[in-house]
Each structure stands twice: as C-alpha cells, then as structure tokens.
Design brief:
By secondary structure, the protein is an all-alpha fold. It is built from 4 helices and no strands. Helix 1 packs antiparallel against helix 2 and helix 2 runs antiparallel to helix 3. The longest helix is centred in the last third of the chain and has 32 residues. The protein is elongated, with a radius of gyration of 21 Å. The N and C termini lie far apart (62 Å).
Amino acid sequence: METLLALAIGVLVAAAVYLMLARNVLRFIFGLILISNAANLTIFVGGRLTQGLPPLIEEGAYAPVEGAANALPQALVLTAIVIGFGLFAFALVLVFRAFTTLGTLNSDKMRVAEPREDAAK
C-alpha cells in the first residue's frame, strides 16, 4: 500500500512542479495546492498505515498497542488541511483582485512596480 501511495505522491509533486512553472498565476495556485496535498500525504504515510487497530491507548496502559498507527501525523495532517484551505482561499482572492486590477493573469505582464522601458515612451 505504501508503494502505491509513494507513486501517487510522486505524480502529485510532478504535476505541482509543472503547474508552478507556468506563467499563469492561477495555475501556480493550483500547483501550490497539489504540492500541499502531496506533503500531507507524505506525513500521513509516515504515521504507518494499519487496518483494524485504532491509535488509542487502552485504560491503564502508557502506550498504544504494538502495531497501532501513530496519531500525531494524523493530527498534523488535519491541521495542515485547514491551513492549506485558508491559504488557498486567500490566494484565490488575491489572484481575483490582481486580475480585476491588471486585466491579466500572466506573471510577465504584471509589472506595476517596474514598468517596461519601451512602454514608458
């Protein structure tokens, strides 16, 4: 199962890098979301995948049963998902505002602070 998830993580990272190298800012945002999901999946797989053993500590014990999944990566991934969604929503609003102000999503044409010399003449 870990091998299949490792391949899925590789595909997600490859697609994210491809999207983040594009000149379109919206594609960059989608690439950022994909790479965030790949990182979450990596952390989740690091916590061990088990079937039928919940990561709970029995009454009177000091540690979970041997072979149980680790609960810390699951909590980290849950937190990262919420933070990633907030980042996506904020970035999407920024992209929308940039598009309405500048009229383009091409990062090469977004030159408000440094206009081209030939455009100034």
